[in-house]
Amino acid sequence: MQRAVELAHEVMGATSPNPAVGAVLVKDGVEIGVGATQPAGHDHAEIVALKQASDLAKGSTLYTTLEPCCTWGRTPPCTKAIIQAGIAEVHFAVIDPNPAVSGNGRDELAAAGIKVVEEEADGARELYEAFAKHIATGTPFVTTKFAMTLDGKIATHTGDSKWVTGPEARGFVQQMRRTCDAILVGVTTALMDDPYLTSRDDDGNPVERQPIRVVLDSTCQTPTGAVMFRQPGSTLIATTESAPDRRIEALEQAGAEVVVLPTGEDRRVDLPALLAHLGSRGVVNLLVEGGGSVHGAFFDGGLVDKVYAFIAPIIVGGETSLSPVEGQGVTLMANAWRLAHTRMEQIGQDWLIIGYPQRDSGNNYQDLQG
Q1: Residue 208: predicted pLDDT
Q2: Whether pLDDT at 362 is above 50
Q3: Measured in Å, how far apart are the chain's first and last C-alpha atoms?
Q4: Would you say the C-alpha torsion 146, 229, 18, 261 has a positive or negative sign?
Q5: Helices (H) and strands (E) in the chain, counts
Q6: CA 366 to CA 337: how far, in whole Å?
Q7: Can you spell out the DSSP letters for 73-112?
Q8: Are 327 and 288 spatial neighbours (Cβ–Cβ below 8 Å)?
Q9: Is 141 helix (H, G, I), strand (E, B) or coil?
Q10: Alpha carbon of 190 to those of 27, 184, 193, 202, 308: distances in Å?
Q11: How many Cα neighbours within 13 Å face the side chain of 101?
Q12: pLDDT at 205 over 60
């Protein structure tokens, strides 16, 4: 099963909006077929493994990270193929989070006389946290990522922010980008940093599949000469009715897609409306890489599902140095967002803390995962 989890991780990001699944077929203690989910419209992991095993599949045991599908979509149901192949036993790590079909695949296999085992596996549930939220709410799973110094700064008092973390941490961020469907920043980041916002390989070259670049820009101040418009992939400017028509037209001519959304109480882009829009176009994983203002807005709205916080062992000081999360914040320490299910790992010279923000009432991750 752990081998199946590894296979699923290898295709994370390449299968969206379908979940990444890994599958391994074993017979007489020997691996006879392996598979991982192919891009949408192509074979699921179980089918890849079955094709590889061919006639040897009869009487074998299948290990798969997600309950096999039993419905028709772009491809036939995997349960039918498993039954027809004569599989004797199926182990799966996570039941399908889609409430409309959850457990149906398991029951169909059992009814066909196949032994079905639900088996826990490290990292398996995390594979489907975004899919679970998207299928249940229609909105993306929101991950915020920021890098800060030991004294909680993301830049010096002059605004210099290159680089807070070392090359290993920056390489890790590229891995994160390769698994997300969209990257979001605020217009201040677009103005100050002129970022590429691309997903790149280990050699620094853009990869084939690029996440959508999303810029929060309520009045369309993004420069038409921004370098992101000359990068592979698409750029979406999320704006409001306050944006002048001439600026909207100029950005569209520069190659951007401009979406006019409702405004929130702060007269900026309404974030729930933006998430609904992104979810409707198949964005399952959203990576928020904005500055303190953008992160603060997402936290103030209770819209953050997961946090990746990089901490560099450096101190810059400065009363006016920027911090990673601003916004209104909380009035009492008792109301602070607290990270649950946290883990920490060292990446190069830096430390990474990963967790799920929650208050006493929990958050999307807690509600969906139980």
Answers
A1: 87
A2: no
A3: 22
A4: positive
A5: 12, 14
A6: 13
A7: SSS--HHHHHHHTT--EEEEEE----TTTTTHHHHHHHHT
A8: no
A9: strand
A10: 54, 10, 6, 24, 21
A11: 16
A12: yes
Give the three-class secondary structure for 31. strand
Burial code (b: 16+ CB inside 10 Å, e: under 16) for 271-287 equals: bebbbebbbeeebbbbb
CA-wise closest residue to 180 among 76, 82, 85, 305: 305
Q: What is the pLDDT of residues 281-318, one digit of tens each?
A: 999 999 999 889 999 999 999 999 999 999 999 999 99
Q: Could you list the active site residues?
A: 46
Q: What are phi and psi of 327, to 5 degrees?
A: 70, -160
C-alpha 216/C-alpha 27 separation (Å) is: 53
Among the listed residues 50, 72, 57, 64, the one whose alpha carbon sits nearest the alpha carbon of residue 106? 64
Q: Are 293 and 285 in contact (CB under 8 A)?
A: no
Q: Locate tokens 């390989």: which residue?
A: 201
Torsion over CA: 62, 66, 70, 76 (sign): negative
pLDDT, tens digit, 9 for 90 and up, residues 305-352: 999 999 999 999 998 888 899 988 989 998 999 999 999 999 999 999
Q: How far is residue 71's CA from residue 73's CA, in Å, rounded to a whole number?
A: 6
- The span from the CA of 192 to the CA of 189, in Å, is 5
Which of 202, 270, 272 has its CA nearest to residue 240? Answer: 270
Residue 360 CA, distance from chain mean position: 24
Cα 287 to Cα 293: distance, rounded to the nearest angstrom: 15
Question: Would you place residue 360 in the very low, low, confident or very high pLDDT band (cuts 50, 70, 90)?
Answer: low
CA–CA distance, 44 with 222 (Å, rounded to integer):
40
Q: pTM for this structure? A: 0.90
Q: What angle do CA 50, 6, 33 make, to 5 degrees?
A: 20
Mean pLDDT computed over every residue of the chain: 92
CB crowding 167-191: b at 16 or more within 10 Å, else e: eebbebbeebbbbbbbbbbbbbbbe
Does 231 have pLDDT greater than 50?
yes
pLDDT tens readout for residues 88-129: 999 999 999 998 899 999 999 999 999 999 999 999 999 999
